Amino acid sequence: MSRTSVVILNWNGEQKGLIRQYLPSVVRNTLNEVADVVVADNGSTDNSLQLLKDEFPTVKVIALDRNYGFAEGYNQAIDILTVLKEEEKKSSTGSIFDVHRMESPDYVVLLNDDARVPEGWLEPMIAYMDAHPQCAALQPKILKDGEERMFEYAGACGGYLDNLCFPYCRGRIFETVEEDLGQYDLPEGEAWPVMWASGACLMIRTELYMKVGGLDRRFFAHMEEIDLCWRLRRMGYDIVCVPQSKVYHKGGASLPQGNPKKTKLNFRNNIVMMWKNLPEDQYRHLIRRRKLLDNLAAANFLRRGQFRNFRAVYEAHREAERMIAEQYTAAELVGFGTARTFVQQQLSILWKYYKKGIRKYSDLGL
């Protein structure tokens, strides 16, 4: 078995056309001696499993018994990959097929099912991980599939948080996405320190993924990779972007921008992430400011006639309060090697973007 496993979470990818559109590039451009390609099927109700068996015989397949969502689907799959067994592994949560003598890989790559990869995409990331044991996780440069000169919204060239925990990226601030002109490229072997790496293509040390508890299943989807990276940073590890590697991501294949469910998950999970990782006094201070700003965001949705997004903001706050009160224990919030800490950059991205008119990361003066 290779030291790296590329794990793609699939849900009804045959019906949506994603398997035939994107999986061939991953199989073709991922050398067998470099990495195994694994598709974790998240309880698909279409013909995905048969398609994988018939047309992609070299791909290893994990079949889960239901749709666990993005976060827990990956947790289930990586848990299976860490078990060494001679025969098929079968459990109450699903089965693993055509995989013999599976042993825990050193690294796993969480790759979205709507990502296309070029030749040589993986090797620079593996080389960086091998050379930098303090690095827990990283991402490549993520470009938009179909518009290859543009950064992609979900991660671009690495992510950050501002002083109110609003996320933004090198190459993307809010809705403004930059053209890739090489402005964020680096010499071979170098990487950008970032606060979070995109879940569209996230390489992580398997041992640390398990140690930190994986992605938070209660998030279901959205913001879960930021929370994961925050916990890794609390343990004292680095997160980086390796721009010598690149992937092309379609984005929005599951929930497009502007979808009310996506709006709710983003607002809700951001609040829960703040509560999990901030010192209590800082959280209390910031949540008051965030509620004010989120009310303004809701009013803006209402002004534009986006009534379902307007409701989604308030539903997000109610659900976040219920999650915090009912779904977490004190024991799981301590640990990770250090106390809860803030890892933001000391600026307001809202002020820079809306008041100062700054649209590019390179113009922030960081």
Keywords for this entry:
two-stranded antiparallel sheet; twelve-stranded mixed beta sheet; 16 strands; alpha+beta; 366 residues
Describe the structure in your own words.
This protein has 366 residues and is α+β, with helices and mostly antiparallel strands. It is built from twelve helices and 16 strands. Helix 8 packs antiparallel against helix 9. The strands form three sheets. Strands 1, 2, 3, 4, 5, 6, 7, 8, 9, 14, 15 and 16 form a twelve-stranded mixed β-sheet that branches. A two-stranded antiparallel ribbon has the order 10-11. The relative contact order is 0.13. Mean pLDDT is 90; it is low at 84-101.
In short:
This protein is an alpha+beta fold. The protein is 37% helix and 21% strand. It has helices at 13-16, 18-29, 48-55, 69-81, 123-131, 206-211, 224-234, 260-277, 280-303, 307-326, 330-333, 349-355; strands at residues 4-10, 36-42, 60-64, 90-91, 94-97, 107-111, 115-116, 135-144, 147-151, 159-161, 167-169, 172-173, 176-177, 192-194, 201-205, 238-249.
